Amino acid sequence: MRPPEFWSANPSGRDAAWTLRMLLTPVSWAYAAAAEHRIRSTVSRHAPVPVVCIGNLTVGGAGKTPITRAIRSKLGPHAHTLSRGYGGRAIGPLRVTPDMDAGEVGDEPLLHAIDGPAWIARDRFAGAMAAAQAGAHVILLDDGFQNPTLAKDLSIVAVDPGFGIGNGQVFPAGPLRERLASGLARADAIVMLGELTQDASWLDEFSKPVLFAKLVPAAPPPSGRLLAFAGLARPEKFFDTLEAAGGDVEEGVPFADHHPYSENDLRLLMQLADERGAQLITTEKDAARLSPEWRARVAVLPVTATFDDETALDALLEPIRSKMTAAHGEA
Length: 331
Description:
Blueprint: H1 18-41, E1 51-56, H2 64-72, E2 79-83, E3 94-96, H3 102-105, H4 108-115, E4 118-120, H5 124-133, E5 138-142, E6 154-159, H6 180-186, E7 189-193, E8 210-217, E9 225-231, H7 235-244, E10 248-255, H8 263-275, E11 279-283, H9 284-287, H10 292-295, E12 299-301, E13 303-307, H11 310-328
Parallel strand pairs: 1-5, 1-6, 2-4, 2-5, 6-7, 7-8, 9-10, 9-11, 11-12
Antiparallel strand pairs: 3-4, 8-13
């Protein structure tokens, strides 16, 4: 689903939905209380190797996957990723290979599998044990910040600074997965992925590192007119990135996050592109949900997360590297 407009920081007019928000507020109190009880009452179990969690405070995407991929590149060939496998049928633990189907393992694990060993598991501790037994020296947990079953050695929270924390309310009255104070208390660092356009005064009392990063295309977009489509939490971010990279975007077609593209969806998109004399283009994450036949017909804009201050990122990761070196001699 697309997030409702009233989740944003400054909704206006009919989209503000004040009555609905008021009706949902008691439900959000119950949701927050349940989340806090689960975190407080669950005994976290430690994997035999360090665990770095890249999570977020809000429902929907905030750039966890590209941040995870960027951090993984710094931790060496024995870094494994672990995801829940959202959108896939498999329960796991299961090692993911790039040729698997997104309907089985989810789209994001397929991107991680391109980089190296990747796993999915609904039971995060079982997934971490499987990765460790397969030779992982460190595990990067893509999402799972609110999952207390697996102990984390380092918890990094990804934030989309164009959205921030929205209206600051807990789901379903707002986008937060838990009370802001609770989440910030467990976070070891925050990564702002993108341009800061929303008020960030909610960070005033957060004394730990705040890093800034941006998405950079790994290759230039194709020449000529482009019809872009994306099923992300904020598809407009992809359209803006494509235009900023020099792409001639004729139109951008948004879909809900993790949208499962049907044959009819893709035929309609191709018809729209043909009418405009344009080529279809999408994200790596969306391409992972296409059939091989359609993947061959749609251009992809790969992006990487680059940090403004690589030294600060290295300092944040140094304790993890030290644990890896102490256990294995090298990362």
